[in-house]
Amino acid sequence: MQLDLSADQVLIRDAVRDLCAREFGPQASSWDREAVVPRQAVARLAEQGFLGMAIPEDWGGVGYDSRTLLIVLEEIARVSAALAIMIAVHNSVGALPVFRFGTDEQRRRFLPRLVSRELAAFSLSEPGAGSDAGAIEATATRTEQHYVLRGSKNWVTNGEQAGVYLIFARTDKAVGSGGLTAFILERGTPGLVVGKAEDKMGLRGSDTVALSLEEVKVPLDQRLGAEGEGFKIAMSMLDAGRIGVAAQALGVMGAAFEESVRYAQQRRAFGQPIARQQAVQFKLAEMERRIQASRLLIWRAAWLKDTGQPYTREASMAKLYASEAATWVTHQAVQVHGGYGYVKEFAVERYYRDARVMEIYEGTSEIQRLVIARSLLKDGVKV
Ligand SMILES: Cc1cc2nc3c(=O)[nH]c(=O)nc-3n(C[C@H](O)[C@H](O)[C@H](O)COP(=O)(O)OP(=O)(O)OC[C@H]3O[C@@H](n4cnc5c(N)ncnc54)[C@H](O)[C@@H]3O)c2cc1C
Taking the complete model, does pTM exceed 0.85, yes or no? Predict the structure, then answer.
């Protein structure tokens, strides 16, 4: 596994870092306050090709390997975790499944929009089915020309802005997770009703909505993959999505760490900078240790993916470790800032709120531990 970035990766990282710092950094806290990331921000990223990172050039994307995609997500998350999750969901679990599992006709129809301007959403969760995705109750009943979708979905990231939705519904009531099927729906399809955005603790600029499926007629040619393949499609996409969440966690904790180091060197107490206190130094050392360990796990999972090897377990390890590291690091960043860490004037307050959800979505920490344990008991230990 190569640890150095290639010359191209360095160029891309520096370009996205510069763009984010110049154009998004000054606005990120107002996006949080106003609970909206403006469409222009997504449009700016689209201009750079960042809506087509996982799509090959032949299909209009920029065809990045996983590590390059993760570097971009990390850089965006450094300034705005809300914008990063919008782009992560779009690339990893929105556009990519259309390419990976779609017919050529579906690719021709949907990919040009997705790589150039429209966000995609991924709608698996329901009010009664989160960790237990096999318990999905939304149904898709086949008629001669259509499937008719009925049910309720929730927690749909990008749901308010998306042009294209991947929706998972049950085509076979009798079979648990094997009875799920994926569909591609367009915004504005009659019966696809977008609910109001959740009032969240963090990631406030990214919209998260409920969807109501009220007798939605979906043409047969908008089924993604075969009937009964939905669960498999969702799980394989979540492997990629989980490394994306880990990269997002890396960006947020990296920003929190840098601000903590800067603050600790400036803030004086008892006649000297607080960075001279060993208790503060230990916090900073521990923050950096967890950040670097996270990066290694993330890059390892990406390397396995890019070299065509199984990576489910490593993706779960990267997601679990990095998300827990991010909640710890951002917690300590608030502590290092003292009272100033608790007010909105300092960004660490936002990072702390933003990091918390990373242990929850795309599979909770408990579910990641289950995935890792099941794999090590089935496939053996790797040490
Ligand atoms: C901001 C945000 C954005 C989201 N975006 C999306 C999206 O775009 N698309 C989408 O489909 N979903 C999305 N989700 C949903 C998210 O993936 C779920 O919230 C998550 O999978 C957990 O499901 P749940 O909320 O139903 O919790 P539950 O599954 O009810 O879990 C509750 C608690 O029980 C624990 N638990 C459950 N089962 C087990 C078990 N077997 N062993 C041990 N512990 C267990 C969990 O770990 C958790 O601590 C989003 C959620 C949030 C908060």
Answer: yes
pLDDT digits (tens, 9 = 90+) for 267-287: 999 999 999 999 999 999 999
Catalytic-role residue among 74, 314, 324, 362: 362
Place of tokens 């794999």: 375
Whole-number pLDDT of residue 175: 86
What sign results for the dihedral spanned by CA atoms 74, 77, 78, 83?
positive
Could you write out the DSSP letters of every residue in 169-195? Answer: EES-SSSTGGGEEEEEEETT-TTEEEE
By the 8 A CB rule, do 241 and 89 touch?
yes
Residue among 182, 236, 221, 233 at smallest CA distance from 103: 221
Q: Name the burial class of residue 198, with classes exposed (0-12), middle (13-18) and buried (19+) by CB atoms within 10 angstroms of its CB.
A: middle
Domains of the chain by range and CATH? Answer: 7-118 (1.10.540.10), 121-228 (2.40.110.10), 231-379 (1.20.140.10)
Which protein residue's CA is at the shortest distance from atom 24 of ligand 1?
A: 130
Q: Note the maximum CA span of the chain.
A: 80
Active site residue 362: yes
CA torsion through residues 5, 7, 8, 13, sign: positive
Whether 212 lines ligand 1, by a CB cut-off of 6 Å, is no
The mean pLDDT value of the chain amounts to 97
Q: How far apart are CA 287 and CA 263, in angstroms?
A: 14
In this structure, is the dihedral angle defined by the CA atoms of residues 152, 158, 162 and 168, taken in order, positive or negative? negative
